[in-house]
Records
---
Amino acid sequence: MKTQRANYKKVLVLETTTLVFAAAFFSLLFVASLDAVSSGNIPPENSVLSGSPCSASFCHDDISGGSVRFTGLPSAFEPGVDYDIGVEIQGGIVYGVQIAVVFADDSQAGTLTSTTNGMVNRTVNGTDILGHSTPLHSGTVNFRWTAPINPQENSVIFKVAANSANGNFSNSGDRINTSQATVPQQTPPELTEKLFFAQFGNGTGLTSSIVLTSPSATNTITGRIDFLDDDGLPFPVAIAGTGTTTTVDFSVPPLGTVTISTDGQGTLAVGSAVVNSESTLGGVIRFNISGVGIAGVGAGVPLSGFITPVRRIAGGINTGIAIYNTEEDAVTLELTLRDAEGTPVPDGTTTIVDFPAGGHLAQFIGGLGEVLFPDANTDDFQGTLVVQVTGGNVASATLELGTVAGEFTTLPVTPLE
C-alpha cells in the first residue's frame, strides 16, 4: 500500500508538472499566434497594412463575429498636434491588435506612442506599427498620435487589425476584424479681416504690445500678425517668449484677449504691423518708452486723406507721424503743414512718389535729423498736418512725445471731407 501511494503521488506530480508546462507552452504559442513575431519587424502579410492580416497568413482561422473600432478620432487634424485616441475590440476573452496611421501609399504619417501597457512599436517595410507584445486582457487600447509637421498629403488613414481570441491555446475559434478611417488635414481659416498698426518698434528702451480682444461669445478667433519694414518686406522683431520672428500666430478665446509684446532689447528698429484674422477683432498697440511713459494707439483706418493736429516746442515736445500703405500697389503722398489758422506753412509741403505697397514712413515734423519738413520753421509751432493720397489708401498714427516723464500721448487722425 505504501508503494502504491508513493507511485500515485509521483504520477500526480508528473501529471501536474506536465499540465503546467503544457499551459505555459500553449500560452507562448498563443502569444506568437496573435502576431507572426514577438519582437522586431512584422512580415507584411501578417500586418495591419495587408489586405487580410492574420487570417490570410493562416495563423488564425477567423470565424465570424467580434468587432473593432477607433474612438476619439479628430474630425480633422492640425500638423504637429498630439491626439489621444482609443481602439475598442469586442468578441473575445483576450486580444491582439495592430495600429498604423499612414498616407495613401502606406508610408508613415506622424508618430504613434502607446499609453496602454503591453503595446510596442515595430516596423513593416519602414512604417511604424503599434502592436501588442503580450496578450491583452482588455479590449480597450489607448495611444497618442502626433500628426506630421509637414504632411505629404492632405489626409491620413488610421488602420487597425484586431484578434478577438477565445483563449483555447490554439489558432481556432478566433475572430479577426479590421477597420480604417480617413482623417483630413484641417483647412486653415481664411484670414479676411485686418487691423493696421502704422507704427511698431522695439529696442533702446521701447517695447510695443499688440492687445487683441474677441467680441465673439462662442468662437475662438485665430490669425497671424505680420511685421513689415519701410519697404513692405518682412521685418524681424524680437517677441518676448518667442524669439526673433517676422510673423506671430495667435488664438483669441471667446470674449477673451491676447497680448503680443516685444522684448525691448537691442538697437531701436521700427516698422509696421498688420493683424490678419478670420473674423473681427478689437485691437490696440501699447507703446512703453522707458523714462517717458505709456501710450496706446488704436488700429489705423485706411483713408485717402486725413488731418491730424501737430505741435513742436524746440528742445521739448515734438510730433511724429507714421504712415502705412494698405494697398497692393504704390501710392503717392502729399503732406502739407498748416498753421493754427489752416494756412500752409512756407517750405511745409512734401510729396512722396511711389510710396511702396506695404511701405512704412515714420518721421517727426521738424527738428534735428531726418524729418518731414527740414526747411520749415517749426520752432514753437502748433497747427495741423494734412495728408492726401493718390492711388489708394493709407493707415496712420500720430504720437506726441516730450523729453520728460508723462509727455507721451496719442493724437487723433480724422478723415478729410
---
Amino acid sequence: MPRAFLLAYRAVRIYTPTIGAAQAAWSAVWTRCIFSECLNESTLPVPPGAPPGFSAGAKGLRARTPLLNGLAGCTGAALRSALDDLAATVFPSDCRVCNRPLLRCTAVPICDLCRTSVPAQAAAMCRICGEALDLDIESARFASQHLGEGLLCDGCRTDLPMFERAVAYAAYRDELREMVHLLKYERMSGVATLLAPMLANSILTIEAEAAQDLVVVPVPLFPSKRRQRGYNQSELLAKAALVELRRARPAWRLRLEPALMRRRRDTRSQFELNSTSRYRNVKGAFEVDVDSIRPGCEVLLIDDIYTTGATARECSRALRRAGASKVWVVTLSRAQRPQVQIPDVAMWDNSPPLSSQGYG
C-alpha cells in the first residue's frame, strides 16, 4: 500500500473540461498531491518507532503533553491544507488579477503571487508631492545635499500645496491597479484588508515628522456615490491600516474621524478629466465641520490613489482653513509619468571623442 496518493495527470484532467483554459493549462503541467508526507503539509509528522503523539524511547510518556500541543498545531495546518485541496479541486476558481488558478481557499479571489508582486516605490521623488523625477538615485542624493528645500517638482515649485508631504506606497500600475479597481468598482471590500499593510508602511514613513496625535480623515464620497458603491474605499483602507498600526505602534495616537469632512457636491469622476479640469472639478467641493475639528491639530488625509493632486490639494485647503495646523497626505498608490531613460554616463560628458592624433 503506497504511503502517498496522487491525483496524477489523467485523473486531474477529469475535472478540467468545466473549469476553463487556465485551470486546464495548470493541470496539464502539475500533479496535485492530496496526502503526501514529503510533498504536502497535510501529513502529520510521526517519530519513527512510536505511535502518533508519543516520542520513541523511555521519555515518550513525559513528552506527551508538549507533543500533543504541537500535534494540535499540526492538525490545524493539516486541516487548512486539506480545505485548500478540496476547494481547489471541487470549487476551482481563477485569480481576478492574473487569471491564474487559485491554489488555496481564500475569501478574496487574489492569488499569493499577485499579493506579493507590488514593489514599493524606489525612484527619486519630489520631497512634497512624491512625483517621480527624471533623476537617478545617486544624482538625486547629490542634489538634495546642496538644496535646503530638497528636490521639488515643477508643480510644487510653481504652486506650493497646503499639505506638508504626500507619500504613496507604490505606483498605480499592474497588480496594484487591478486590486484597487476590484475594491472600488467590483464591491470586493475584503481587498482593503489585503492592501492595508502597504498603506500602513506608507504612513510609517511620516512618523518621525508628524505629531504623535493625528486626526485621520479619509477623503469623503458624495452620499449618492457612497450608496451606489456600498462603502467609501478610502475609509475601509484607513480602518484596516489603523488596525495594523495599532499593533506596530501602540503609542502613536491615530484617531479616525470620517465625519470630520464631507463632500458637499457631486463631482465628476476624476479619471475622465485632464489635469486642468480636475482642479476645477473639485474646487470648493469639500467642507469641514468646524465645530468638531480641534484648532491646531494635525490631520492625516487618506486616499486610495494620488493622480494629479487636485483632490489632496483641495481637501488640505479646506482642512487648513478650518483650523488644522498641518495636513499629511498618504495614499496607497500614485499615478507616475513614464520616466525618461537616463544614460549610464556623466550628464556633462556630451563632447565628441578626442582625435586619434592626440595633442600634437
---
Amino acid sequence: MKEKVVLAYSGGLDTTTIIPWLKEKFDYDVVCCCVDVGQGAELDGLDERARLSGASKLYIENVVDEFCDDFIVPCVQANAVYENKYLLGTSMARPVIAKKLVEIARKEGATAICHGATGKGNDQIRFELGITALAPDLKIIAPWRMTDIWTIQSREDEIEYCRQHGIDLPFDMSQSYSRDRNLWHISHEGLELEDPSLEPNYEHLLMLSVPPEKAPDEPEYVTMTFEHGVPKTLNGKAMKVSEIITELNALGGKHGIGIVDIVENRVVGMKSHGVYETPGGTILMEAHQQLEELVLDRALMDAKKDMSNRLAQLVYEGKWFTPLRESIQAFIETSQKDVTGEVRFKLYKGNIIKAGTTSAYALYDESLASFTTGDLYDHHDADGFINLFGLPLKVRAMKKLQREEKKNQQ
C-alpha cells in the first residue's frame, strides 16, 4: 500500500504541477486539501482540477468562521500591525491552514505534508513551524527547496511538465501578479512592484477596492458596536464576525479604504515590495482603536502597545502555536473586558473619519477635561506634581551646573 501525502492545494499552477511530481518522484498517494479561508471564486472547479491532475482525493475545508473568531479577532483586539502597515492577512491565515492540514493527515493516515511555498518567502516558515508544533512526526516536503529533483523554473516549465504527464488544463501562459487572498485581504507582488521606484499600476492591480480618487464624492456613515473587544453589530444589525468583515470589505472597497504600498522585512532576511488591499480589516482595526481610546487608561495602553508589537512579530514569523503567543493573547483578552461600546465614523476617499464614540466604560470625564475648573481638579495640585515629576531632570541639571562651576574655579 502506497504512503499518503497531504498536499496543501490551492488549485493554482504551482500546486497542480506538484501532484504528478509527487507521484513520479516518491510514488505517493496524493490527497489534496484546500483550506477555505475566504478565497471566494478561487475555489471554483478545484475538485475536477485535482482529479484530472492525479490526486486520489480532495478535501475542501471551510474554516472561515474559525479563522475570523480564533485568529483574526485576537489580532484585532491587540491592534497587531507588522512594521506599522501590514495587517497580517496572510500571516494570520497560515496557522489555521497548518492546523487543518495536520487534521486531514491524521484522518488519512498520511506520513507527510507537502506545500508549494517558495524558498525565498515567509510562508514556508509559517507552514512548517505550524505543522511541526502540531505534528512533529510528520515529514514535510517543500519542492521549491529540493532543487536536485525539482528542476522546474518558470510557469512555462510547469505547463510543459503537466502536458508531458497528460494534464492539459487552461492555465494562462502570461505573467501576472503573485497574489494571496482570504476574507481579510488580498496581497499583490511581482511585475512592476518588483521595482519600488515605480508607482503601482492600481488600475490594473486592485481587485477589492477602487483608488481613493475614484471613490464616491459623498461620505458614508457607519456605526459599529463591540463587546469585550469583539465586533457584534454593523449599522444596527447583529452579525457574525465573518459577516461583518464581508460587509466592511464591500464598504471599504467602495471608498478606497485600506490600500497599502509597503516595503517590508521578510523573516528570511530580504526586503520585499508589495501592495495589500485590506478594506474591511482596516476599518475594523480603526473602529476598535477608536473605542479603546475612550476606555483604556494610559498605563494599560502603553503596556498593550508593547504586547501588540510583539504579537505582530510572532504572527508574522509563524510562531502562533507557542506559549509566548498564548501568554500575550491572555494579557490582551484581559485588557478587553471594558472595550464595549459604539463607534460611529464616515468613509470618504480612502479616509476613516471619527463621528462619535460612546461607552458605559468611558474614562473620559467632561468636567475634568474641560477648561472650566471642576470639583475634582484643583489647578494648584499641579505645582507639587510637576516638582516631583520633574525632580530627576532638576537634580541632573543641578549636578551638571555644580560640575561646571567647580571646573571654572580650578
